[in-house]
Design goal:
The structure is a homodimer.
Chain A lengths: L1 H7 L2 E8 L2 E15 L4 E7 L3 E6 L2 E5 L3 H7 L2 H7 L4 E6 L4 H8 L5 E5 L3 H10 L1 H4 L7 E4 L3 H6 L5 E7 L13 H10 E10 L7 H12 L4 E8 L7 E8 L22 H7 L4 H4 L4
Parallel strand pairs in A: 6-7, 6-9, 7-8, 9-10
Antiparallel strand pairs in A: 1-2, 2-3, 3-4, 4-5, 10-12, 11-12
Helix pairs in contact in A: 2-4
C-alpha cells in the first residue's frame, strides 16, 4: 500500500536538524496542522518513522522510536530511587513519559504540567499508543507553566522528568540554572530529576553548561546516553540530578519486572558509560 | 569563514539513507569526484561532519565521527583476543581501521585487502588523519578481492575486520554465509572476526540473517552497538564471530593503555548490552 502511494505522491517532511543539516522523511499524509497559542504543531504519517509529532518543525516523537526516549527519561530515575510515590512531568504533553511512569509499582500520583493543551488534545486524537495513560486516575493534567509550577511546589515530588523540546521558544526557561535550583527545592529529600539534554555531536556547549549548573546544585549528577534515531545524530543525552541515590549503585535485584523494549538493568548500567569524547564535555 | 560561505553558496550534499529517508549536509566544496573502476567516489567538505568520503552516494566516513567506527571495529576484538599478531582488513581503504589496529602492542603485521586502489589513493591525498598509518612498515596493502583472499589464506589471521560498505554492489559477497565460513578457516585457532552489520532500525532482516549465519559457524557470536551519527539512524551494529575468546569475559586489567576517543574497557562492556528490541532480532 505504501509503495503504491510512493509512486503517485512524492511528499517529504523535512526537519532542519541544525542550521546545516536536514533530515527528510517521505510522508504519506499530513493528518493535522495548526498554530496553537504557543507553537506550530503537525502530525504526519511517514514511511521511515511511522506517525510523527512536529512542534515548530522539529520532530518531538515518532511511533517507531518513542519507546527509547520515554523509557530512558523515566526508568533509570525510578529504579535509582526505588520507591517513588509522586512524580511530576514538565512538558511531555504527548503522554509517553506518563505511560512509562505509571508502570512503576510504587507510583501513586503523577502530575503532568504542559503549557500547551493542544499538544495533549492532539496526542489523544492522533497518538493513542503514546497518550494511552493520560486518563489514568493516578494522572493529573495541568495546563500551566512548568517553571512557575516548580517554584510553587516545595518538597513535593520524588521524581521530576523534564520532558521538554529544544531550548528555544517556550522551553528556554527549562534549561536555566534558576530552574534547576527550583527543581531541587520541589523534590523530596531523596528526590531525583532527569532532563533531556540534547546531542553530544551538535550541542556540546549546552551539555557542558547544563552539567555544570546541575552539578553546582545536586550532590550526584550523571549523564546517560540513548539511541534515538529520529533526533539529530541519533545519540541523545539525559542528565540526572539526584539528592541521595546514585544511579550507578542500584542492586540488580531491585528492578521490578515490567515490559520494556529498550530499558533493562543492563542497559541502565551501560547508558552511564560515557565515551571519552563525551567525558571531556563534562570536565 | 564558513558563515560567510553559507550566505553566498547554498550547497547541499544529500544521501538517500533509505529509499524514504534523506540526510542533507551543507557543504562548502567538493574536493574531488571520480568514477573508479568499481564505484563513484566523492570527497566533500561539509559543515556538520567535516570532510566526508562518499562511495556511490553513501557516506563511508567523516572526519567528525570516524573515530567511533574505527575504534569499535578493532579494539573490542583486539582486547577480546589479548595477544593478536596478524590482522586482516577487508575493505577499509580509507585506512582508519589500519590506524587503530596498529595501536595494539602485540600486532606485528596488518594486511589490507581493498578492491579499489582509488579509495586508498584518495584517502592518502584528502583524508590524512584517517589514512596516516597506511605506509607503516607493519602494513601490507593489496588491491584484490577480499572474498578470494580469505579463500586462499587458511589458518593465517588472529583478527579479521570486515570493513565493508553496504551489502549492495561490490560488497555483496562480504555478507554471504560462504564468506563467513571462509573467514572461519582463514582465522587461527583462537581467531576473531568483526564486521560492520548495519542498522537495527532500518536493516533488521539483514542483522537477523547475518547473526544466524555467523552463529551457525562460530561458537561465540556477539552483536555490539555504537553511536555513529553520520550513518542512518545513528545506531550501528558490529557482529563478532570468535572461535574461543568471549568478549564479555575480558579482564579489566588486560586492556592496554592507548589513546582512544570512544572506546574504553567500560564502553567495551556496555556495547554488548542490547536493548530488548535488538535482542528480539537475534532470536
Amino acid at each position: 500500500m505504501f509503495d503504491q502511494q510512493k509512486h503517485v505522491f512524492n511528499l517529504w517532511a523535512t526537519e532542519d536538524q541544525t542550521p546545516n543539516m536536514r533530515l527528510s522523511l517521505q510522508a504519506t499524509q499530513t493528518l493535522h496542522t495548526e498554530q496553537t497559542p504557543y507553537q506550530h504543531l503537525a502530525i504526519v504519517d511517514t514511511l521511515p518513522f511511522g506517525r510523527v509529532l512536529f512542534l515548530d518543525g522539529i520532530i518531538q516523537t515518532t511511533t517507531k522510536d518513542e519507546f527509547v526516549y520515554h523509557e530512558m527519561i523515566t526508568h533509570p530515575a525510578l529504579n535509582t530511587h526505588g520507591s517513588p510515590k509522586r512524580a511530576l512531568v514538565i512538558g511531555g504533553g504527548d503522554g509517553g513519559t506518563i505511560r512509562e511512569l505509571i508502570k512503576y509499582p510504587t507510583i501513586e500520583k503523577v502530575t503532568l504540567v504542559e503549557i500547551d493543551a493542544r499538544v495533549v488534545e492532539n496526542a489523544k486524537e492522533y497518538l493513542p499508543e503514546i497518550s494511552c495513560e493520560l486518563d489514568n486516575p493516578k494522572v493529573e493534567v495541568r495546563y500551566e507553566d512548568g517553571v512557575k509550577h516548580v517554584q510553587e511546589h516545595k518538597n513535593t515530588y520524588d521524581i521530576i522528568c523534564v520532558d521538554s523540546p529544544d531550548p528555544i521558544g517556550p522551553a528556554e526557561g527549562l534549561f536555566a540554572k534558576e530552574f534547576y535550583q527550583n527543581l531541587y527545592e520541589a523534590l523530596t529529600e531523596d528526590g531525583i530529576f532527569v532532563a533531556q539534554t540534547e546531542s553530544p555531536w551538535f550541542t556540546e556547549s549546552l551539555i557542558r553548561r547544563v552539567h555544570k549548573d546541575i552539578s553546582s546544585i545536586f550532590p550526584i549528577t550523571k549523564v546517560m546516553l540513548a539511541f534515538i534515531p529520529s533526533y539529530p545524530g541519533g545519540m541523545w543525552t539525559f542528565t540526572m540530578g539526584s539528592k541521595k541515590h546514585n544511579p550507578l549503585e542500584v542492586a540488580a535485584d531491585k528492578f521490578p519486572g515490567y515490559k520494556t523494549r529498550y530499558y533493562t538493568p543492563e542497559v541502565h548500567k551501560a547508558a552511564f558509560q560515557l565515551p571519552p569524547f563525551v567525558q571531556e564535555m563534562l570536565k
